[in-house]
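Dear colleagues,

As part of the handover before I leave the project, I'm documenting each prediction I ran so the next person doesn't have to rerun anything. This entry is a single chain, and its sequence is reproduced below.
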Amino acid sequence: MSTVEVGKIVKPQGIKGEVKVQCFVDNPQGFAHLGKITVEGRPYRILRARSVGADVYLTLEGVSDRNAAEALRDSILTVDRKEAEGLKTGEYFVQDLIGLAVTDGERDYGVISDVLQYGAADVLVLDGGKTMVPYLKRLVLRVDLEGGRMEVDAKVWQEVVCEN
C-alpha cells in the first residue's frame, strides 16, 4: 500500500488532546473528509477536524489529554494514496518531487532534497540547501516522475535562483 505524507503534528492544542498540524497539502479542509489517518505507522480515527487558515486541528481517537497529544509532537501524518484527493495537472505530492534531478536539458542544476511550503510559492531545495528556487509555473517546463527529472526554463532559472 502506497502512502502520502499529508502533514506533521507541531504541538498539542489545549488540554483535551487536540493537535495542531502543519498541512502538507493545498486543501486543509480535506482533513474533515478523512475518516482515519496514520501517525508514524499507527492508525487513528479522526473524531474532529477543523482548519484555521493553513493550519489544521485534529482530535484523534485515543488521544484524550495534553500528555497524549504531546507524545505525538513532530510525528508525520500519512494517508493511503488512494484516499488522497486527486491532483490537477501540474500538481504533485511533495514526496514525489524529492529526489528528482533538475535540468534545463543542457545543464544539470542538482537534485531536489526538500520542498519548503510557504504562502506565495513552494520552494525547491536542491542538494541539501546549496540552491533554493521557487516552484513557479513559468519555471517548470516538465516533470517526469518515472524518469526522475524536472526540466526547467534556463532563462527563468537565472532570474529566480538563490544559491548559497
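The chain has two domains: 3-80, 94-163. DSSP finds three helices and 13 strands in the chain.

All the best with the project,
I.
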